[in-house]
Design brief:
62% of the residues lie in helices and 5% in strands. It has twelve helices and four strands. The longest helix is centred in the middle third of the chain and has 25 residues, at 123-147.
Length: 261
């Protein structure tokens, strides 16, 4: 365990500002519409997820940190509360704020996923996301095939149309992709599965964006989505599950390929 005693050390950089000083780094995210404590949480969160701050590390005190970042102590405290709620840190009187072990982190929290993909996540983390999707989504498709309503099918069709129109290289196209996967979970009529929609959607979006960071997608995944839709619309649970299983497997292969070239 070590103490992060030098708050002048830059926090994890945003993709556009890799060498900014802490003061500039803290101010930069303000233009994105985040509240100040959200910007601080982003900088600390990306630093933790990237390994700059390791489990067991003690962050320097709020007085030193807030002075170094030129922010109020209350904004820093609120940022730490955000990280605490997501399982990244814990704060104790006199002991300070300590980075928790990785198995305590809420890795499915959409913000935590965003912080992970702000850097270069390792293949084990990415594999874990696809393994989760491979467990949840094929089963969800089987239920959706049995329980879907006409409105669910319309949302899926509209989402695929938007994916075609915008392509997955754009935020609009990726938003449509998230809507497609959300619609499947909603069509299960299973509240326990539906609550996973934000996490599954974030995982889909971030992995899709990640594998395009250096080059275009190696193939068009929209036909795979159409096969899932057709099976759900036909009420064929086995075919819907198999089609989603193939979609997830191929998406993981594409992601692996993007990391090896």
């Amino acid at each position: 365990m070590k103490t992060i005693a030098d708050p002048q050390t830059p926090l994890a950089a945003t993709p556009d500002t890799p060498t900014e000083a802490p003061e500039a780094a803290a101010r930069a995210p303000r233009g994105t519409g985040r509240r100040l404590h959200g910007a601080i949480a982003y900088k600390l969160g990306t630093a933790i997820l990237s390994g700059e701050y390791a489990p067991g590390d003690i962050l320097s005190g709020e007085v030193a940190f807030s002075a170094a970042l030129d922010v109020s102590r209350s904004a820093y405290r609120e940022a730490v509360q955000v990280l605490t709620a997501k399982g990244l840190v814990e704060s104790r009187p006199k002991a300070g704020t300590r980075v928790l072990p990785r198995n305590r982190w809420n890795l499915l929290d959409p913000d935590v996923l965003a912080w992970a993909f702000a850097g270069e996540p390792d293949i084990a983390f990415i594999r874990g996301l696809f393994e989760l999707r491979g467990i949840v989504e094929p089963a969800a498709c089987a239920l959706a095939a049995e329980r879907r309503e006409r409105s669910d099918i319309k949302i899926m069709r509209d989402s695929i149309a938007a994916m075609r129109r915008h392509t997955l290289a754009t935020e609009a196209g990726r938003a449509a992709d998230r809507e497609f996967h959300d619609a499947i979970l909603n069509a299960t009529r299973n509240d326990a599965l539906i609550v996973l929609s934000a996490s599954i959607g974030a995982a889909v979006s971030w992995t899709t964006q990640f594998k395009q960071r250096q080059r275009a997608l190696p193939r068009n995944p929209i036909p795979d989505h159409i096969k899932v839709l057709d099976a759900i619309a036909a009420g064929d649970a086995a075919a819907a599950s198999a089609a989603m299983r193939l979609l997830v497997d191929l998406a993981f292969e594409d992601t692996q390929l993007s990391m090896t070239r």
